Amino acid sequence: MEPKTIKRIGVLTSGGDAPGMNAAIRATVRAGFYYNLEMYGIYRGYEGMIGNEIKKLETKHIYHVLERGGTFLKSARSEEFKTAEGRKKAYENLTKHGIDALVIIGGDGSLTGAHLFYNEYGIPSIGIPGTIDNDLAGTDLTIGFDTACNTAIQAIDKIRDTATSHDRLFFVEVMGRDAGFIAINAGIGSAAAATLIPEKKMPIERLVERLKARTAQMKQSNIVIVAEGGKSGGAVEIADKIKKQLPYYDIKVTILGHLQRGGAPSALDRVLASKLGVAAVEGLIQGKYDVMAGIINNKIVYTPIAKAIVGHKDVDEDDFRVAKILST
Ligand code: F6P
């Protein structure tokens, strides 16, 4: 598409926050300044676009944010933006500020909103994948995923210490409503006895057999990782079922929850976010609209948002196989 002249870019973070979002905002803003553009922060995601929470950003706003978790622009899941009236209000506010392009940092819900908005109002826009879930097609990694895996694995290491001291069986629930990426990586990276993910159903009987076999092998501790959206239920539900079948086990459940969304971003997430922030601004300048900037095989790739969200990425069959081999 023939590039439009862009003068003012609005940047926002939307949906569940992810470590590295601040680094992505900072890179977007710095790149904008580099190309002599004016940069605007849209606070609280699409909610703030509708409520006109929009401020011009200066260099002082992005000092020392790269290394911080969360998002200084704040985030929200907006129901109103799903309505035509909500999007109309949002458009009117952008027009008031003369914002003529958008960078949207978020997961599949946020990018779905961006796609809809672009089709209705045609404002040049580009997405940056920011979600701990890693479930977007068009990029090898999403911002926040690596940090979330590190957080989960560090927490599981601690659980392992106490599990071993007491010969206990722990069910640890990690985040991932529809995607098992954190679970499978945490499982491989912490020597889990089994990993239950939303993409694959593991019958309880099979889990029982695996745990029985491990008892026979005198394994000192057992940790089962359960993705919150697991097909057989959450960690509490599965622990209850197992307790009925293996009453001799001393069973505990830990839900890691939102601690996986916080904390300073890892080196990998900082670098990924920084590269994608620059790529987003350069993409807009080059006339790449309604796309998501991602990294595949260490190269920047722009994928139509429609493809990135429709092609929901599932855990690789091979990763699942590796986890299985290493847990028997
Ligand atoms: O999409 C990221 C994510 O952390 C999911 O893994 C999780 O299911 C969901 O967000 C939780 O969302 P909320 O913080 O709105 O409860």
Please supply descriptive tags for the structure shown above.
2 domains, Rossmann fold, 7-stranded mixed β-sheet, binds 6-O-phosphono-beta-D-fructofuranose, alpha/beta, 328 residues, allosteric enzyme, 4-stranded parallel β-sheet, 6-phosphofructokinase activity, ATP-binding, cytoplasm
Would you kindly provide a written description of the structure presented here, covering whatever features stand out?
By secondary structure, the protein is an alpha/beta fold. Helix content is 42%, strand content 17%. The strands form two sheets. The chain has a seven-stranded mixed β-sheet, sandwiched between helices. Strands 7-8-6-9 form a four-stranded parallel β-sheet, with helices on both faces. The longest helix is centred in the middle third of the chain and has 21 residues, at 145-165. The protein starts with 7 loop residues before the first strand and ends with a helix. It binds 6-O-phosphono-beta-D-fructofuranose. This is ATP-dependent 6-phosphofructokinase. Homotetramer.
Percent of residues in helices: 40-55%
How many E-type strands? 11
Q: What compounds are bound to the protein?
A: 6-O-phosphono-beta-D-fructofuranose
Do you know the CATH topology of the largest domain?
Rossmann fold
- Domain count: the total is 2
The backbone outline, from C-alpha atoms, is elongated
Largest sheet: 7 strands, mixed
Question: What is the H/E order?
Answer: EHEHEHEHEHEHEHEHEHEEHH
Strand content: 15-25%
Structural class: alpha/beta
Radius of gyration: 22 Å
List low-confidence stretches.
none
Q: Report, as a whole number of angstroms, the end-to-end distance.
A: 53 Å
CATH architecture of the largest domain: 3-Layer(aba) Sandwich
